[in-house]
Design brief:
The complex is a heterodimer of chains A (147) and B (282).
Chain A: H1 2-12, E1 15-20, H2 26-35, E2 47-48, E3 57-61, E4 64-65, H3 69-78, E5 84-88, H4 89-94, E6 104-106, E7 116-118, H5 125-146
Parallel strand pairs in A: 1-2, 1-3, 3-5, 5-7
Antiparallel strand pairs in A: 4-6
Helix pairs in contact in A: 2-5
Chain B: H1 2-32, H2 42-51, H3 61-81, H4 86-105, H5 110-141, H6 146-150, H7 161-174, H8 189-192, H9 202-225, H10 231-251, H11 257-281
Helix pairs in contact in B: 1-3, 1-9, 2-9, 3-4, 3-9, 4-5, 5-7, 5-11, 7-9, 7-11, 9-10
Classes of the chains: A alpha/beta (147), B mainly alpha (282).
The complex binds iron/sulfur cluster.
Iron/sulfur cluster is lined by residues 23-24, 26-27, 61-62, 89-91, 96, 121-122 of chain A.
């Protein structure tokens, strides 16, 4: 019974920590747009929380470079499991227009495992919400597989 | 025996009521901001999710402090419904709050340290006021016992209207509503990252949330004392007070702790003295 409730909670309250790996701010503005009354992601229990220790989903925007990859890894490690990672925007996926710069590592998945990729430069708020829904779908599948 | 049963039932039901209040709170806040807002049951989803997360402790102290906080919050609700002594409840409440702060102080994180210091200042702000409220209740009813207040017959609000405002200040602080949410603010993430709560995570955070629900029930119980003579009077008073808190939460921005200390002590003490003088004169 308790397990059912816990699983239900996992699907209904994804708290997000948003980490900006040196993005151009385009993606970040779209993330913030999701919090405005127009999209109001709190409807789905999604909260943008500042503390990785409270978060369930890590939303990464921007290009990972040699300096901030340690920070990214650190934030990921500080999140208690179960957790999910969403990479956002062309930069988060592959490095985007910056991928050939000498200091750039590439996509987020070069450093930490990524569950969902959200395309776009920048992605629309709808796409971001969709990304979270996909991440939850994966969580749900994992829960069902675990029984 | 009847009292014991009532108090036990209250302790079991309090988290349910507290969670529902928290859900309504978020819904109404969303409504005031012309949003849809989360479902009413959202706080329960959050807490159950947190219970299911893997523990990530900084040190064993955190377990102890969280348990003491939870148990003391439960005990205040229990004592309240037992009709026990208000001062005793105050001490138990304080023990819980102090342990909560100690848990935050036991970690190295600067955010938690800053949050803990702020939490101590908030405690310093509301505790004298709550004591004054209890003293004035005792002056009117002749006893510190909750059961005496219930048999008093008349609503305390008639004789202690200003004390009620003072309790309102304490309530705003205890409910962590703006402008007094300086130690563990949900919204100012970038500043202290939830302050005292920074280093608590997973099951511990869930327990803190549940303890907070107990606190909410207890503090609303104190508000209810001001119209203990009739059920509907009490219900209306609680609803109006809580809604006022919500509106205040939504129309005020956060303030610094110095402003809080000055304002709350200034107004709280002035109103208390006025009300007590009036009691003497009348
Ligand atoms: S994907 Fe586009 S909008 Fe997003 S950070 Fe990169 S360049 Fe900026």
């Amino acid at each position: 019974m308790l397990k059912d409730w816990i699983n239900k909670g996992r699907l209904k309250s994804p708290w997000i920590v948003h980490f900006d790996c040196g993005s151009c701010n385009g993606c970040d503005i779209e993330v913030l747009a999701c919090l405005t009354p127009l999209y109001d992601v709190e409807r789905f229990g999604i909260i943008n929380i500042g503390d990785p220790k409270h978060a369930d989903v890590l939303l990464v925007t921007g290009t990972v470079n040699h300096r901030n990859k340690h920070v990214l890894k650190n934030i990921y490690d500080q999140m208690p499991s179960p957790k999910a990672v969403i990479a956002m925007g062309a930069c988060g996926l592959t490095g985007g227009v910056f991928r050939e710069a000498y200091n750039v590592v590439g996509g987020v998945d070069k450093v930490i495992p990524v569950d969902v990729y959200v395309r776009g430069c920048p992605p629309k708020p709808e796409a971001i919400i969709d990304g979270v829904v996909h991440a939850l779908g994966k969580v749900k599948a994992a829960l069902e597989a675990a029984g | 025996m009847g009292k014991l049963l009532l108090a036990t039932i209250a302790v079991i039901l309090a988290p349910v009521v507290g969670g529902l209040i928290a859900g309504l709170d978020r819904k109404l806040t969303a409504w005031l901001q012309s949003r849809v807002g989360p479902p009413i049951l959202q706080p329960f989803y959050d807490v159950f999710k947190l219970l299911g997360k893997s523990p990530m402790l900084i040190n064993p102290w955190q377990i102890l402090t969280v348990w003491v906080y939870l148990v003391s919050s439960m005990l205040t609700v229990f004592l309240f419904f037992m009709g026990s002594d208000l001062l005793l409840m105050f001490f138990v409440l304080t023990i819980g709050a102090v342990f909560f702060v100690m848990g935050a102080l036991s970690t190295q994180s600067p955010y938690a340290q800053v949050g803990a210091q702020r939490e101590l200042v908030t405690m310093l702000t509301y505790e004298p006021l709550i004591i004054l409220v209890f003293v004035s209740i005792a002056m009117v009813t002749g006893s510190f016992k909750v059961s005496e207040v219930f048999t008093y017959g008349k609503p305390l609000l008639y004789q202690l209207p200003l004390m009620f405002v003072v309790l309102g200040y304490a309530l705003t602080i205890k409910l962590r509503k703006s402008p007094f949410d300086i130690s563990a603010c949900h919204h100012a993430h970038q500043e202290v990252v939830r302050g005292v709560l920074t280093e608590y995570s997973g099951p511990q955070l869930a327990m803190i949330e549940i303890a907070h629900w107990y606190d909410v029930v207890f503090v609303l119980g104190l508000v209810g004392l001001f119209w203990a003579s009739s059920f509907w009077g009490c219900a209306v008073l609680l609803a109006v007070t809580y809604f006022a808190e919500l509106v205040i939460d939504n129309v005020t921005a956060r303030m610094t702790y110095k402003w809080m200390l000055k304002t709350v002590w200034g107004w709280g003490l002035a109103l208390s003295v006025l009300n007590l003088l009036w009691l003497y004169a009348g």
